[in-house]
Specification:
- By secondary structure, the protein is mostly beta strands.
- It has 3 domains: 140 residues, no CATH class; 58 residues, no CATH class; 110 residues, no CATH class.
- The chain has 2 helices and 43 strands.
- The strands form 11 sheets. It has a 4-stranded antiparallel β-sheet with strand order 1-2-3-4, with helices on one face. A 4-stranded antiparallel β-sheet has the order 5-6-7-8, with no helix packed on it.
- It starts with 10 loop residues before the first helix and ends in a 13-residue tail after the last strand.
């Protein structure tokens, strides 16, 4: 048998491979296809696009497969059954028949969980090395006996939530027993949390439960990630240190979604950390990722940036290309916050459908002041690579906007 080189389980990559199959083959999904009366499975990457990284895959025949009853088990919602299929006789993983799975009753339950009439199985294909061959992946999964490892006996009580699942004996997270969980009271609380009689659990901390006061536990203002009890506030299962549950409230973005900021009667918090110097009584969103209180302005992108010197009473964020203004002038805040020296906020305006701007004094492109440009006659021409005023033609050459030597603005036409 040829060695299987299989980028497992990167679905986009494998799906691209499927498109490379000969036209006479029918794609069944899940890495399988038919040609004539035979079933084939993706084998190895034979060529790879330099630009996209997508592979073209060869295939190998699935020995002994019954084409009339063959079906793939991958779900349109989940990618964790990729490579699984079955017919009337066998369950297959990457084309290899499994010795211990009952084909008649074998089902994909989602999130890596499977069942047949005898057992519950878990195969977490998401965390295998994508560079490893399918042979090594298969060996790691099925072992010397060529069978799926059983998670538990199937007693019909097994239910899958997502990475969390439970039966009458245990709660599981990614196929491992959550030893602290109380099985009889474990249930879904909302889209972010599970709870039992003692703890809350979230998917982001590998199923480790935080002890809380369950009788007083509730969502904060209907948010998913914030919970509170009589003692603490929790954000994705972690205590927001120092937060007062009685007065705690998430701060909404201007589109009414929950931001990373929150307040209580004493402080402002960003995620689970105190935001120094912020006033909870006046802190609010001013739009497009900007927040202010009575004396400060912050911008939230990858991190939280305090915009030193910006006046919160007159700040205007209603621009398209990372410009903001206040009574003191204009600023550009992408990657590095920059004051546009000499700018006049009263006359500052963006040039429509571009990232150029101008005021009565100057012309700007992003954080650059275009030296010598005349704002009264400046226009952008062509595809924004060129611009001109009464005196000069300018070109954006990836090193800034600069004068094109010798170009006459009265007759200049951008190259086609």
């Amino acid at each position: 048998m040829k060695k299987i080189l299989f980028a497992f389980p990167v679905i986009a990559l494998l799906a691209a491979g499927c498109s490379s199959l000969q036209n006479s083959k029918k794609d069944l999904g899940g890495g399988y296809s038919t040609e004539g009366s035979s079933i084939y499975v993706i084998d190895k990457c034979t060529s790879q696009s330099f630009e996209s990284g997508e592979c073209s895959y060869s295939t190998k025949k699935v020995t002994g497969a019954d084409i009339k009853t063959f079906q793939t088990l991958s779900s349109s919602q989940q990618n964790d059954a990729y490579g699984f299929a079955k017919d009337k006789n066998y369950v297959y993983l990457l084309g290899q028949a499994l010795a211990n799975a009952d084909a008649a009753t074998f089902k994909n339950l989602g999130y890596g969980y499977f069942e047949d009439k005898n057992s519950i199985y878990f195969v977490n294909t998401r965390y295998f090395n994508a560079e490893a061959s399918a042979d090594s992946n298969l060996s790691a999964i099925v072992g010397a006996n060529n069978g799926l490892p059983a998670l538990a006996a199937n007693d019909s009580s097994f239910v899958v939530y997502n990475q969390f699942a439970k039966d009458s004996r245990h709660v599981y997270y990614n196929g491992k027993i959550v030893s602290l969980a109380d099985t009889s009271t474990f249930h879904k609380f909302n889209d972010c949390y599970f709870v039992d009689k003692n703890r809350i659990y979230v998917n982001t901390n590998l199923g480790i439960g935080q002890v809380v006061d369950i009788p007083t536990l509730k969502s904060v203002n209907g948010s998913c990630n914030y919970l509170k009890d009589k003692n603490f506030v929790y954000n994705y299962g972690q205590i927001v240190q120092g937060a007062n549950p009685a007065t705690f409230s998430p701060v909404q973005n201007d589109n009414k979604t929950v931001s990373s900021f929150s307040t209580d009667n004493n402080n402002v918090y960003v995620n689970n950390q105190l935001l120094p110097g912020a006033d909870p009584k006046t802190f609010h969103s001013i739009g497009l990722g900007y927040f202010s209180d009575a004396t400060h302005v912050w911008y939230q992108e990858i991190g939280i940036m305090l915009l030193t010197g910006v006046d919160p009473k007159t700040v205007n964020t209603n621009y398209n290309c990372n410009y903001i203004t206040d009574k003191n002038g204009a600023y550009y805040d992408y990657e590095k916050f920059t004051k546009l020296e000499g700018s006049d906020s009263a006359t500052f305006q963006e040039i429509p459908k571009t990232c150029y701007a101008k005021d009565k004094n100057q012309v700007y492109h992003l954080n650059q002041i275009i030296t010598g440009a005349d704002p009264a006659t400046f226009v952008v021409i062509g595809n924004q690579e060129y611009s001109k005023d009464k005196n000069h033609v300018y070109k954006d050459d990836n090193h800034g906007v600069n004068i094109v030597p010798g170009a006459d603005p009265n007759i200049f036409q951008p190259p086609q």
